[in-house]
Amino acid sequence: MKIQGVGHVVLKVRDLERSVRFYSGVLGLKEVGRLRDQMVFFSAGVSHHDLAVLAVGPDAPAPPRTAVGLYHVAFKIGDSLEELREAKALLDASGVPIRALSDHRVSQSIYTEDPDGNMVELFVDADPAIWAEDPASVATVRPLALG
Question: Which CATH number fits domain 1-58: 3.40.50.300, 2.60.40.10, 3.40.80.10, 3.10.180.10?
């Protein structure tokens, strides 16, 4: 078997409409379908869906930070620091807190959380020659200033 890529991610959320406002309204993913009042599917425009959210109820407990499970979902938003600056400005204007700004050499990232505390990374890719020449460079984490 050869994995060809990641098809989609499904996140558990407490409030479907609140998540729609975040993923569609703030992040700009297109809502492409619903399964009853239980799931909403989103697409970035290339695939039938890239993300889905599954309602588990308003009283669902948050997993402990040290629990096994998904750490974050990463969305590529472009290839330039200017696009990352624009994303930061949009998050700031929308009142979405930024948890970290990181330079990974192979990419630069903004880390935030959705309304349920699921970590979301928004990133731009750097020159692909960096990881082609040094695959281990993917393990770099340095502070990033977006000015």
Answer: 3.10.180.10
User: In 3-128, which residue ranges form alpha helices assigned H by DSSP?
Assistant: 16-20, 81-93
Residue type at 111 in one-letter notation: Y
Query: For residue 37, what are its two tokens?
Result: 């009042």
In single-letter form, the type of residue at position 18 comes to R
Rg (CA), the chain: 16
Catalytic residues: 121
Question: What band does 65 get if pLDDT is binned at 50, 70 and 90?
Answer: confident
- Label residue 116 exposed, middle or buried (CB < 10 Å: 0-12, 13-18, 19+): middle
For 91-107, what is each residue's pLDDT tens digit? 999 999 999 999 999 99
